[in-house]
Amino acid sequence: MKGSFHPSNALQLEADAVIIGSGAGGASVADVLTAAGLSIIMLEEGQHIPSSSASPIAREAFSAAWRGGGITAAIGRPPITYAEGRCVGGGTEINSAITQRADGDLINEWRKLNKIENFTADELAPYYERAETVVNASLTHGALGRATGILRQGGKALGWKVSELKRGQRGCKGANRCSYVCPNGAKQSMSVTLLPKAVNRGMRLLAQTRVDKIRIEKRRATEVIARSRDAGGQVVPVHVKAGMVFVCAGAIHTPALLRRSGKRERIGNTLRLHPTIKATALFSEPVDAHQSRLPLTAITEFMPDQRIGGSVFTPSVFGLSLAEDWTNRGDLMRDLRFCGSYYGMIRPRGVGSVRWLPGFNEPLVRFKLAPEDWIALSQVLTRLGQAMFAAGARKVFPSIFGHEGWTSPDQVHEFWDKPLPNGATNLMTVHLFSSCPPGEHQDACPVDSYGRVRGVENLFVADGSLIPEAPGVNPQMTIMALAFRVAEAALYRSAQERARSAARDKI
């Protein structure tokens, strides 16, 4: 991609706006601002990974595109492993590209809870439509494989609603490497959609550039201070002055950056995520999940509070999941062809936090599950087990250390009305949000209804941090919709400021 470059010496740059982060939020802001003719500089901590150089080896792919190689955890009991992209395109390069809108009733609840202006399903619909058009949200045609059929079969046998999932794709070849960076450019991530368009309009993109601080003086963000690397890996200072600053570094690193820039009030206090528990299902007939697309149906009967779906399945990823309890489950590697990996996901009532720690590159992330979250996890795991047996599984292994696995549908009710063992349960998530919720409820919201950080005239948040609570669905479309909305509002606000300034000059 043109414009993704390494500086050779210290840079002093100026632009109409600087965007920190190149994922779904940052790319969407760039699309709006470059279309309006503004000069833009985008700073991305990770590297650019073209499809042609995407590695098929899990260790190399995770190291290149995932923060911390995919191993990061929110502290709690138990700790919850979470995943973030760190590359040009951010999380859109490693996610499954599933496109879903937040439930309209939830959007209405958020509007009332946080007093968010002009925030209804109808008012957000044009932004959702724009996001869906960008990524060509569409159903996958042709054979989807047994891994998808298992969810459909199990859900329908139980009389539950099962939904086909649209994805952001063009000509998917079913390589089953969505989490590695798509090798064909078929997944419509930001690096193959909005970012090239913005660069062609003149945006300057600096990859491998970490932002240390935003300087704020007299209620304005005046300068972004960063460190890049030259072609030899040496650190190069980068200073950017811009009329507007958009922080789009994700629900973890956006609040961390704002806090180390001196903005701490209510920022990073309300982290939400989707606690997710997995299960491995063993069948008598081959599933061959490693040779087909990831499961493209989901059991949606219990949404938005609970959802049951399928995970990316490759030999290496399957081995990593078994490593949670290798002593008892390592033998399942020999039955790879007969296994599938599925999950249950909940909308939690618990809340987490993000804190910047001086001297550390990574912030401190905590998350505490509420008592009702444990019951919800028990229920969704029970339902997941029911679906697997209804689809013909002969054994189901929940992601609980030391658990022997269930061999009949009668056994899956083991935890229905009691919490899972918190010392042995392995939880993870790939969805993070809500650390900077918007609204006019000033005691709860660190940014206004349009993403502007309180007390700073030209500093905006535009990423998953803005989603007011856990949405119960894959968040990319909501992130893009809200980022489009923030960017348009910022343009309007900037135009008003220029008009007022011009009027004052005439007096």
Q: What is the structure about, briefly put?
A:
FAD binds at residue 211. The chain is an alpha/beta fold.
- Topology, number of strands: 23
The biggest sheet amounts to: 8 strands, mixed
Q: Low-confidence segments, ≥5 residues, pLDDT <50?
A: none
Task: Please state the CA-atom Rg, rounded to the nearest Å.
Answer: 23 Å
End-to-end span in angstroms? Answer: 47 Å
Name the CATH superfamily classification of the domain at 1-63 and 86-136 and 188-268 and 435-507: FAD/NAD(P)-binding domain
Q: So how many helices? A: 11
- Quote the beta fraction: 15-25%
CATH level 1 class label of the domain at 1-63 and 86-136 and 188-268 and 435-507: Alpha Beta
Shape: globular
Mean pLDDT: 93
Q: Output the CATH topology of the domain at 1-63 and 86-136 and 188-268 and 435-507.
A: FAD/NAD(P)-binding domain
Tell me the quaternary state: single chain
Pairing-aware structural class of the strands and helices?
Answer: alpha/beta
Percentage of residues in helical conformation: 25-40%
CATH architecture of the domain at 1-63 and 86-136 and 188-268 and 435-507: 3-Layer(bba) Sandwich
Explain what you see:
By secondary structure, this protein is α/β, with parallel strands linked by helices. It has a domain at 1-63 and 86-136 and 188-268 and 435-507: FAD/NAD(P)-binding domain. 27% of the residues lie in helices and 22% in strands. It has 11 helices and 23 strands. The protein has helices at residues 24-35, 58-65, 104-114, 121-135, 146-157, 194-200, 250-260, 315-322, 326-329, 371-390, 476-506, and strands at 4-5, 11-20, 40-43, 72-74, 80-82, 137-138, 162-164, 167-168, 204-206, 210-217, 220-229, 235-247, 272-273, 276-283, 297-299, 306-310, 339-346, 351-355, 364-368, 393-398, 427-429, 432-433, 459-461. The strands form 7 sheets. Strands 1, 2, 3, 9, 10, 11, 12 and 23 form an 8-stranded mixed sheet that branches. A hairpin with an 8-residue loop joins strand 18 and strand 19 (364-368). Helix 4 crosses helix 11 (476-506). The longest helix has 31 residues, at 476-506. It starts with a strand and ends with a helix. The mean pLDDT is 93. This is GMC family oxidoreductase. It comes from Bradyrhizobium rifense. Pfam families: GMC_oxred_C (PF05199), GMC_oxred_N (PF00732). FAD binds at residue 211. Residues 67-275 form the Glucose-methanol-choline oxidoreductase N-terminal domain.
